[in-house]
Amino acid sequence: MRRRLILGGAGALGAFGFMMGLGAWRSGDLRRITGDAGALDRIDLARMDWELTDDRGDRVSPRDWLGRASMVCFGFTWCPDVCPTTLMDISGWLEDLGPEAERIHVSLITVDPERDSPATLSEYLSNFDPRIRGLTGTPAEVAQAAGAFGARYERIPREDGDYTMDHTSGVHVFRPSGALSSIIDFHEDRKFAVPKITRAIE
Amino acid sequence: MKHLATALGLAVTLPLAAVAECASVSAGGLTVTGAWSRATIGNERPAVFYVEIRNEGETADRLTGIDTPVAAMTMLHRTVVEEGVASMPHAEAVEIPACETVGLAPGSHHGMLMGLTAPLTEGESFPVTLQFERAGAVEIDTRVLSIRAQEAQCDAG
Hints:
- The structure holds two protein chains of two kinds.
- Chain A is of the alpha+beta class.
- Chain A has one domain: Glutaredoxin.
- Chain A has five helices and nine strands.
- Residues about 1-35 of chain A have low confidence and may be disordered.
- Chain B has one helix spanning about 1-10, and strands at about 25, 30-40, 45-55, 60-65, 70-80, 80, 85, 95, 100-105, 110-115, 125-130, 135-145.
- In chain B, strand 2 (about 30-40) and strand 3 form a beta hairpin.
- Chain B has one helix and twelve strands; from the N terminus they run αββββββββββββ.
- Chain B starts with a helix and ends in a 12-residue tail after the last strand.
- In chain B, the strands form two sheets. In chain B, strands 1, 2, 3, 4, 5, 8, 9, 10, 11 and 12 form a ten-stranded mixed sheet that branches.
- By secondary structure, chain B is mostly beta strands.
């Protein structure tokens, strides 16, 4: 049952017939998130090219977010443990930021577009901070967006015929210019997380 | 641990705290307490099971499985973050070392309840049977909390 994400190596590509983040593979940027700190500079909303649909049915592109800071995380609404935890962490950070929180866009990009329609995202996100928007699209659109963030995801079949998703769990924080400011790790202590967001806003 | 046992013994004589106490069941050296789950949207999504297991005994034990009438299939999982990617590999068992407390908790080990017979509704509760290698079966009442909950909302005593 246990599967691991295999990192790097073009030879491994064939093993990922169902892996959808092909854009990321092609550009060879799977290691952006880890290791090579200089590569993080290349994750820039101003230079990204993708379009998704939000939970209200509106089309969104990264250019729409420029001029204000942004926070982006990846997840899916069938996710029982990691995603509610991340969304509650984000809700807590927004609370700590107070009025400053109005100066930042917050979005969850689904890695499970087959199940997460705009309406599904809307219903799910209504349980969390109302400032968190959900984004979905066709599988190709989601793959393109995830690739631009250097985010990875993989569909993992379960024994009962259902499936779950492995996915990048850090929260990307961008400056108003679109430049990546920092990545907040999964379940990072809020005393570290909140200053990271404050730095991006200012 | 002996100090803790003494403290707990003394605490019995004190009035109960204002916060409701968690359901708590003991078997051998194990005490199972603070079982909770999150409300679900519909019954298609898997639900979680979180609990605290205190081993005040001298021997280690292992949690090898969970069972509940509200789900067709259950599994123990562990959330792992490697290279920034979160995955939930199946855990064959959860080790419960002697004199330690182990939590199934958000972002860590957790139970997965799949094929729910009905949506889990906040405020309700349901039974879960934990299967331990040494202590045997332990049934605990599990509270359904908000989808926003991050911890048990009772006093673990």
